[in-house]
Write a structure and sequence with these properties.
Order of helices and strands: EHEHHEHEHEEHEEHHEH
Distance between the termini: 30 Å
Radius of gyration: 18 Å
Structural class: alpha/beta
CATH class: Alpha Beta
CATH topology: Rossmann fold
Oligomer: single chain
Strand order of the largest sheet: 3-2-1-4-5-7-8
CATH superfamily: Formyl transferase, N-terminal domain
Largest sheet: 7 strands, mixed
Number of helices: 9
Length: 270
């Protein structure tokens, strides 16, 4: 297992963290430090309400098979992040926080962590204080930058540009405006599930929580596999005026985006 000496993984309970861990492990790579964040009094859950356990298992099984056929499946997301870390025997430290921008986390990262690069797995919008703690935060965004910025970009990218875009960048104070490390585009997969028969919120959660994250991990893994030290990554500065910033997709538009996942072809665009 090759250790990424200057890299810290800021893990959470979110499925994005799980896919990153699975992907890096599969590539024989491991961050030099893993911090697992727990929110005090948090009720966060990756479970999908509105489905019985049997219904979810059936849908999840189809998604896994579909992603495996494309070489994108990273691992079983039904396990918790902690269970995955313990199964892989990856040592980690747990920190209980109030919010991602809290003084306790900022001070901890600044004063006690020597790693310069942090893999960010979500948990809120990062503000100036934490972004100025002397670290560079690596984020994978579901949309090709600078074209698609903002919220629900996995859906907007599919609806507006007829492809799934993924972008890795170093975070700054803007919304998805940091220096771009790499981008990839994929054709929209036919998931072979009748998503339109599901409740809209259920279909949306399946796409964003159980499909999107595997694509993010694919791009993250390729970055570290090609060049393990982020100090040597080449970046491209964005022009803040380029592209478009999207907001959460309105319910009236969502069915149009959903149709893309049953009408698409199955090959990578670029």
């Amino acid at each position: 297992m090759k250790k990424l000496e200057n890299v810290l993984l800021l893990a959470t309970s979110h499925n994005v963290a799980k896919t990153y861990i699975y992907k890096l492990n599969r590539l024989g790579l491991k961050p030099s430090k893993i911090i697992f964040l727990k929110w005090r009094n948090s009720s966060f859950s990756n479970e999908i309400s509105g489905l019985t356990n049997e219904e979810f298992r059936m849908l999840d099984s189809k998604l896994k098979a579909n992603l495996k056929s494309r070489g994108l499946f990273t691992g079983d997301l039904s396990f918790t992040t902690e269970e995955i870390l313990e199964y892989l025997d990856w040592e980690y430290e747990t920190r209980v926080i109030e919010n991602i921008n809290g003084e306790d986390l900022v001070s901890f990262l600044k004063d006690r962590m020597h790693q310069e690069y942090i893999i960010y797995c979500g948990g809120g919008i990062l503000r100036k204080k934490i972004l100025s703690c002397g670290k560079r935060f690596i984020h994978v965004h579901p949309g090709e930058l600078p074209l698609v910025k903002g919220a629900d970009c996995f859906l907007w990218s599919s609806l507006v540009h007829d492809r799934i875009g993924m972008s890795a960048f170093f975070m700054n104070e803007g919304i998805d405006t940091g220096d771009i490390i790499d981008t990839k585009n994929y054709s929209i997969p036919n998931l072979e599930i009748d998503l339109e028969k599901l409740e809209a919120r259920v279909a949306k959660q399946l796409l964003i929580n159980f499909v999107d994250s595997h694509y993010r991990a694919e791009l993250l893994g390729s970055l570290f596999m090609n060049i393990p030290d982020p100090a040597y990554w080449k970046t491209t500065r964005q022009n803040p005026s380029e592209g478009k910033t999207y907001y959460f997709m309105h319910d009236a538009l969502f069915p149009q985006a959903l149709k893309k996942f049953s009408q698409s072809k199955m090959k990578m665009v670029s």
